[in-house]
Amino acid sequence: MTDASRAPRLLAAMAHPDDAEILIGGTLFHLKSLGWEIGIVTMTSGDCGSASHSGEEISRIRYAEAKTAADYLGAWYGCAGLMDVEIFANAQNQRRVVELMRRFDPDVVITHSPADYMVDHEEASRLARSACFALSMPLYQTRQIAPAPATKSTPALYYADPVDGVDAMGDRVFPHFYVDITGTLENKIKMLGLHKSQRDWLLAHHGIDEYLEQARRWSARYGRESGCDYAEGLRQHMGHGYPREPLLQDALNSKIESRTTELRNPQLATDH
Ligand SMILES: [Zn+2]
Q: How far apart are alpha carbons 161 and 6 in whole angstroms?
């Protein structure tokens, strides 16, 4: 349940800087324009995302880029300070994530798919899922400096689609519903482009603006699956103890699409 005395609050809890933009950027812009407060938490600041900078340098650069991108959306940004390829769902990391999430106090959280192409994403998903449960437990102490109070309730939890729409075995993971992002695609692409170091890196490597083109391609593919131009996919966590009300589906109402019947064709499901 959202608190009627304040604007609803959505937190994207992702592994790395740029994951939120790539997977759910268009959805975030829709919610922002509906008056939602948006927050983005990344587990790491992307300290392994470079072939030319030191870990410390690229971490600083990518943190600043993530902040700039969040500013462009008008979103709060927090980083849990974990390291790339060392995101693990353990007690120490859990405390940091719960602390950050309590500071934002979300009504809805979107994280990675529980099954994804890399362990960082899957562990970030586990951390976010477990953190949602712990947020409102007053006896759960984060042991951080000046800790935020426990929240009033457990937020509704949603999962973005895995990267490329498949799990680590290459099997297609279909979303529960699609969000038509045709109207917000350009904002999503612009926000993603603010992760300049990643864009430049891929540009030098591929000779084309692959970073942005790939995001456009993926959104178009989801669009084809749901009968609109561009889309993103989401699933809702329906397990015991988490809100099952369709908060996002209701808020995004006119933008919600479902899978087209032609999609039973497996050819399209594996088309890149
Ligand atoms: Zn990532």
A: 29
Question: Residue 139 Cα, ligand 1 centroid: separation in angstroms?
Answer: 32
How far, in Å, is the centroid of ligand 1 from the Cα of 262? 31
pLDDT in tens, 24-48: 999 999 999 999 999 999 999 988 8
Buried b (16+ CB within 10 A) or exposed e, 169-187: eeeebebbbbbbbeebbeb
pTM to 2 decimal places: 0.94
Residue 157: what are its φ and ψ, rounded to 5°? -115, 130
- How far is C-alpha 159 from the geometric centre of its chain's CA atoms? 8
Strand order through the sheet with 76-82: 76-82, 37-44, 9-14, 108-111, 156-160, 231-236, 177-180, 256-257
DSSP lists the bridge partners of residue 144 as none
Closest by CA to 172, choosing from 271, 42, 251, is 271
Residue 223: strand, helix, or coil: helix
Output the CA 225–ligand 1 centroid distance in Å: 23
Distance CA 210, CA 75 (A): 26
How much distance in Å is there from the Cα of 138 to the middle of ligand 1? 31
- What separation in Å is there between the alpha carbon of 121 and the centre of ligand 1? 6
As given in the structure block, the two tokens for residue 196 are 């300049």
For ligand 1, the distance from its centroid to the CA atom of residue 44, given in whole angstroms, is 9
d(CA 96, CA 77): 14
Q: Which whole number is the average pLDDT over 10-35?
A: 97
How crowded is residue 211: how many other Cβ atoms within 10 Å of its Cβ?
A: 22
